[in-house]
Design brief:
The structure is a single chain. Strands 1-2-3 form a 3-stranded antiparallel beta sheet. It has helices spanning about 5-35, 40-60, 70-75, 105-110, 120-130, 135-150, 155-165, 170-180, 185-195, 200-225, 240-250, 255-270, 275-285, 290-305, 310-325, 335-350, 365-380, 385-400, 415-420, 430-455, 465-470; strands spanning about 90, 95-100, 100-105. The relative contact order is 0.13. It contains 21 helices and 3 strands. By secondary structure, the protein is mainly alpha-helical. Helix 5 runs parallel beside helix 20 (about 430-455), helix 6 packs across helix 10 and helix 13 crosses helix 20. The protein has a domain at about 310-420: Cytochrome p450-Terp, domain 2 (Orthogonal Bundle), CATH 1.10.230.10.
């Protein structure tokens, strides 16, 4: 009897666990059956197709070689090594980023827009990234409404943000707020009670929608507390779309041009294939079955680095310093020769011109072009835009003459700060938080796909320096 008791006990616990899972999963299915969430329903319809295509991929191509890598790539940050499956976007050296096969101009043309707006809606992009389909106006509206329903921020998260020392970096505040919000994770709770692996995606999508819905209020509270003494701006408005709501809560209520700028910003910064630090960190932590809150928080810790998400604020600061150091004035009446001389002096001193060049791209970043077109329409006479525009004409030729760079063309960071600054959002340290809200759309869409496909724990092999020496000693 003594040996039988543990077996009976384990059987009892397993029975409770199964009942708990069945109860929770049935509740989950009933919730979505009545929620009217067309996005969740559409993803559910696509799951068998996704898994069948993934199975075919494994069966047909698992033994195919993708290429070779060398020690230099291992020592150089794994540049160019194909090691990730990432379906939501792909970076083409000539055409730039493509979201589910669509270029930036195609995204701007095809995705639904707000009434009276000219830029694509971020919630429409989220639909596209998960399903691979351009959503209809009705489907886009369903995502907007879904996010409205999930937007309420717990009081304890608001209290935490309100208690932050204004000197605490805005990205640290974002990560801390998301970490506290993690207690709301449906994935974590369901996993604890016991759920089937094939159902992971449903709870991942649940958490992703919840988190994306709450990020604008989190980010706007951080902004108002840190830079405006906690003075509130507009309250959350369920009559507005995602980007407009965010803009209004930041303090630009009723500014339709800024609404459009933020929609554009959130779309073009959302995803940039899977190898960048924020996307890869989210994917890596998620591969351990950490919930979307923890995975996204890890991605934001990477985004906060000066070699990643801080770049747009650094470019803006450099532009002001460059203008003042070379006495170019504030009215935009410099000559191209003055700019060329100043750029040559900058390079001769051993410094770089930030915002130009890219590790993969070999032409002007289409995200830069999209922002340039916005500026030409809305702020053509702004002196800082004129500086960016004139540098676009001068710098590539200078860099090409040097022959030291493979891509002399500007990237997205060369432009975004100037646009935000024009509309009065001048706190450059905060720009990375805007980037973080945008990046949630891409990395959480892919995290949901990771769980649909059942991608495994990521665990590459590492070696020591001595191992490399011994291997090639002969």
């Amino acid at each position: 009897m003594a040996t039988l008791r543990p077996i009976i006990h384990r059987h009892f616990l397993n029975t409770v666990k199964r009942q708990s899972y069945n109860t929770q999963h049935e509740l989950f299915k009933r919730t979505f059956a009545t929620s009217g969430s067309s996005l969740v329903q559409r993803v559910g319809e696509l799951v068998p197709q996704y898994r069948a295509e993934f199975k075919e991929l494994k069966e047909k191509y698992s033994d195919k070689k993708l290429g070779e890598f060398n020690v230099g790539q291992v020592l150089g940050g794994m540049r160019g090594m194909i090691g990730l499956l990432y379906d939501t976007s792909l970076l083409d050296p000539q055409e730039g980023i493509r979201f589910r096969g669509y270029s930036i101009p195609e995204i701007q043309e095809k995705l639904p827009k707000a009434e009276g707006g000219n830029e694509p809606l971020p919630e429409a992009l989220f639909w596209l990234l998960i399903t691979g389909e351009i959503p209809t106006e009705e489907q886009t509206k369903s995502v907007t409404n879904e996010l409205h329903q999930r937007s309420k921020l717990p009081q304890e998260v608001k209290k935490l943000i309100n208690k932050f020392d204004p000197d605490l970096h805005a990205m640290s505040q974002l990560v801390a707020a998301v970490a506290l919000l993690q207690k709301e994770s449906r994935f974590a709770k369901a996993y604890h009670t016991g759920i089937k692996k094939t159902d992971y995606w449903q709870y991942t999508l649940e958490d992703s929608l919840d988190l994306i819905a709450k990020l604008p209020e989190i980010a706007s509270l951080i902004y108002r507390n840190k830079y405006h003494n906690g003075e509130p701006a507009a309250k959350y408005n369920k009559q507005l779309d995602y980007g407009a709501n965010f803009a209004a809560m930041l303090g630009w209520e009723g500014n339709n041009d800024f609404y459009d700028l933020l929609r554009l910003y959130l779309v073009i910064h959302s995803d940039h294939e899977g190898g960048n630090v924020s996307a890869h960190s989210t994917h890596l932590v998620g591969s351990a079955l950490s919930d979307p809150y923890l995975s996204y928080a890890a991605g934001m810790c990477g985004l906060a680095g000066p070699l990643h998400g801080l770049a747009n604020q650094e470019v803006l600061r450099w532009l002001f310093q460059f203008r003042d150091q070379h006495n170019l004035g504030e009215k935009g009446n410099w000559t191209k020769q003055q700019l060329e001389d100043a750029c040559n002096a900058t390079l001769a001193s051993g410094r770089v011109i930030p915002g130009f060049g890219h590790a993969v791209l070999r032409k002007t970043d289409p995200r830069y072009t999209a922002q340039r077109e916005f500026a030409l329409k809305h702020l053509p006479n702004d002196p800082m835009f004129k500086l960016v525009s004139d540098l676009y004409e001068v710098v590539p030729g200078i860099l090409q003459k040097q022959g030291k760079v493979s891509n002399p063309w500007p990237n997205v960071d060369a432009h975004s700060g100037v646009l935000l600054n024009y509309y009065g959002l001048r706190e450059a340290e905060y720009y990375t938080v805007l980037f973080g809200v945008s990046r949630a759309i891409g990395v959480l869409a892919q995290l949901t796909i990771d769980r649909i496909l059942g991608l495994p724990l990521e665990r590459p092999k590492s070696v020591t320096s001595q191992w490399i020496r011994d291997k090639f000693k002969q």
